Amino acid sequence: MPLLDGAKTESRTRSRKTTITLLAAGAFVLLALLVALNAFNTSSIHFLTPQTTGEILVFTATSVIAFLTLLALLVMLLRNILKLYMDQRSRALGSRLRTRMVVGAALIALAPAAFMVLFSFVLMNRSVDRWFSQPTSELRENSVRVVYELAHYAASNARLEAEAIAASGALDQSTSSAEGELRSRRITLEGGFVAVYGANRQGMFGYQLPANNAPRSVLPWLDDGANNAVPMRGDVYSDVLSVAQRSDEPILIAGDREFAIGIAATSANRLIVVGLPMPQGLSQTANRIRIGASQYWKLFRSRNRIRSTYLFMLLLITALVFFSSMWLALFLSKQITRPVEALADAMDEIADGKLEMRVSVDSSGEMADLVSAFNHMAHDLESSRHLAESSRLQLSDANRKLDERRRELETILETIPSGVVTLDVDGVILLCNRAFSALTYQLPDENPSGQRITALFPAECHEDIERLIRRSRRMGAAATELEAQRSGSILHLAITCARLELGPGRNGSILVVEDTTELLRAQRQLAWKEVAQRVAHEIRNPLTPIALSAERILRHLDRPTEETPAVMRKCSEVILGCVTTLRTLFDQFAALAQFPAPQPRPSNVNQITENALMLFSGRLEGVSVHVALEPSLPLVMADPEAIKRALANLIDNAAEAMQTSLLKVLTVTTSLAPDGTQVEVAVSDTGQGLTDEIRERLFLPFYSTKQRGTGLGLSIAAKIAQEHHGSIRAEANSPKGARFLLCLPAIETTAVSPLREAPSLHQPETKPTVTASK
């Protein structure tokens, strides 16, 4: 996959950025170090106050390195500015953005930096003037003067106390009188001590002298501010005397106490040294005051140099800030423009169709996100192109297969003998095949598309077709048979309608129309042939006993005997029975041929079922009758008497089928079909059941499985169901036997109230068992 920038360019850029970062960090550290050293007292740092030649060389080398570092950074800055100027002249991509960022950064940095320099310099001048003002100088001089006067005052008090003790003359007398004099001055001594020396300057006795083993030192009062206490190694008398004989009035430090020393001589040439205690820490305080005053005068003499130094530092900081802002602006502009340049070049490549181009640029933050988003977009574009190419090939192949499939379907539709037509939701023809045009007597060059389906059929078929379409929309599929009169002949059509999904929110229908005229004619011929055979068979059966009975009567008439009357009576009964059978056969055949026209009206199926069951009240010997009638069934449009006859035939056949069964259970139920459009009446038995061959021929006229059956009962029931636009079918019962289901169309949105209790045979809803016995 091509990359816009190579690895060498990235390595070079990374190395340059690392070098610049290190140089900038070094310059910043040096500047911070200089600021910190000038902000604090650096006189105690030996390295910054070089004394020897080696220290001076090291300090000079460090300064030169710092200066060269700043100079290198300045050269790099100037180089980048010149390069930016050349890019601006050549109108390079991103140069104007870099120029604006550099100029903006310079302006933004220059204004606050200049303000900071001016404000800091003015503030520094005012601070220096305030530090070295006349009141401050006088305050420091007065503080030093107070310290010296306090020291002289303490020494004078000690000297006066010594002179007072010497003037009393008690010390020239006995030791006891001397000690009494010293004790009397305990208050004025304020916790101090007294040492008495003889003419030979040897210690005679003392009062409250410091311990001999306590560390002692002498602290002189010096104007140079040095605070050097000199340790003393002699005994307490010699140390006290040496301090008292000094002319600079030093302080004696014994342990943690400080004493001002005074000396006086008696008339007997004895020396009296008095030490008065000074306030705790007075010497340290006085010493600090002297040191502070000394440093103050040093700073006062170098105040102009301080101004120059701080001004130079401010200018240096300003220059560094300005340089840093310029360099930062250049650096940030490169961080922005370099990815932008790479993105622009990559976009040109992608515009030329090279979707495999990617951008490889070292960036961070939002620019890194932008580069990543661009690469992701390029990857998506490349993937989309591959996907589009693959989809195009797949679509082309799918279209080719669809065209082949469409041609196959068109060929199939044009070759099948059944008429096929598709309709929209309004019943308008969308497409039809050649067979449908032929069935509706359309010319080959005429296209019935755009016409309503009912316009191609006679007016008497319109309602049936519309009802069929509505029913298919509810149930998914529906079928019916129509008779249409064309050119003086009757055309029998079997129409099947199914719901068709034409698209989102678009529904329609598909109709399959078959011409069953010849099929029905053949079926009728076959049925009448079978009827003739069955009629001949059924007539031949009673004729044989009639002929035999007649021959027997003739024989007894020719030769009468005592048994002749009985034989003639018996033969006559046989003949009459056979004649009755023939009459019944003829009556049923006549009923099949000329069945009265039904008179349909809204009827309650449960009531009709109860009436049919009433016909068999007390006649079903040994049969358990189970009845379950569904309450709240919708009404049906039916002739109650005709439906009752059909149900009576079904119940009678069920009872006959169970004659040889050990378990005789007759079940009659009513229910609403799952689609809610039909009411179903089921008659079930526990007989021998039905085979597939019997089920196919069960509803043909004169077909019977009973020995003495006529075969007309079920065909009459099927004809009644057909006349009521319903159906009847036979199926296997569980666990054994047969189940006949009579289905009648329900009147839409009409329901009956629950039935009252049946007067006999069963109770609705509770499914009782009624057993009829002999």
Automatic annotation (TrEMBL):
GO terms for biological process: osmosensory signaling via phosphorelay pathway; regulation of DNA-templated transcription. Residues 534-748 form the Histidine kinase domain. Residues 334-386 form the HAMP domain. It is a multi-pass membrane protein. Its main location: membrane. It is found in: Membrane. Residues 755-774 are annotated as: Disordered. The chain crosses the membrane at residues 20-40, 56-82, 102-124, 310-332. Residues 388-415 form a coiled coil. GO terms for cellular component: membrane. SUPFAM superfamilies: ATPase domain of HSP90 chaperone/DNA topoisomerase II/histidine kinase, HAMP domain-like, Homodimeric domain of signal transducing histidine kinase, PYP-like sensor domain (PAS domain). It is an enzyme of class 2 (transferase). InterPro entries: BphY/WalK/GraS-like, HAMP_dom, HATPase_C_sf, HATPase_dom, His_kinase_dom, HisK_dim/P_dom, HisK_dim/P_sf, NtrY. It catalyses: ATP + protein L-histidine = ADP + protein N-phospho-L-histidine. The keyword Coiled coil applies. Its EC number is 2.7.13.3. Pfam families: HAMP, HATPase_c, HisKA, PAS. Residues 405-476 form the PAS domain. SMART domains: HAMP, HATPase_c, HisKA, PAS. Keywords: ATP-binding, Coiled coil, Kinase, Membrane, Nucleotide-binding, Phosphoprotein, Transferase, Transmembrane, Transmembrane helix, Two-component regulatory system. One of its GO terms (molecular function) is protein kinase activator activity. PANTHER family: SENSOR HISTIDINE KINASE GLRK, TWO-COMPONENT HISTIDINE KINASE. This is histidine kinase. The lineage of its organism: unclassified sequences, metagenomes, ecological metagenomes.
